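Pipeline run #58 for the internal structure catalog. This entry was flagged by the ingest filter as a single-chain record with no existing model, so it goes straight to prediction. Upstream metadata was stripped on purpose; only the residue string is passed forward. Reviewer on rotation: M.T. Logging verbosity set to normal.
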Amino acid sequence: MHIEALIFDMDGLMIDSERLYFDTEREMARRFKKTVEEETLWKMMGRSPLESMAVFVETLKLPLSPKEVLGKRNELMRVKLKNDLQSMPGLNHILDTFYGKLKMAVCTGAQKEFLDIVVDGLGIRKKFHALQTSDGIKHGKPDPEIYLETCTRLDKKPHQCVVLEDSSNGALAGKRAGCYVIAVPSEYTREQDFSFVHYIAADLFQAENHISRFLLSPKNGIGSR
C-alpha cells in the first residue's frame, strides 16, 4: 500500500464539538420535558444530521419530524460553534506535518454551513484538497458512500488513503470503503467498538507519528495489524 492521501473526520476529531452537540441535544430534550440517555447520544454520533435526528426523535418519541428537530438543533449549534470553537490537541501539528506531502481532505457528516464555520474559523481551509460534507450524500456513516466520494474527489483509490476517525460509525464507514483506518477516540467515544480498525491512537500526535513512520519507509507502505 502506497499512502497518498489523508482524510479527516471533523466533529470530535478535528474540533472539540461532541460536547457541544451533547449539550445541545440534552437542552433540546429538556425543552420537550424528556431525558436523553448517553447510549442514544452515542448512537447518533458519526451519522448524517438527518439520520442522527431520526434516532433522536424516534427514541424520545417527539411530536416533530426529524427535519423540524434538526432545524432547532442547527440554530443552537450555529451559535455554539461560532462562540466556542476549539481545535483538538495536535490538529495544527498533523496538518503542518503532512501539508504538501499528502493530499488532505475533510470528510464530515455535518452540513456545509458548519464545515465552513470550522475551516474558516480555524484558518485551515487552504490545507485541504477536498471538503466533503453530508450534503448530497444519500447514506450517512457507517455506510461507506461519503468516504468513497471523498476518495473520488481526491482522485485516489481507497487503499491509498488513510482515514482518521473518532467514532465507531465513522471508522466503520472508512473501513468499508477500503481505506486504512486510524481511530482517535475522544472522551465521548472511548467505550465504542474499534476492534476492526487498523490502528488506535491516543491523540493526533500519536496518529501523526504512526503515519510518519510509514512515509519514511522505503516502500511507503502500511502493513496490516
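catalog note: The two ends are 13 Å apart (CA to CA).
catalog note: The chain has nine helices and six strands.
status: ready for reviewer M.T.
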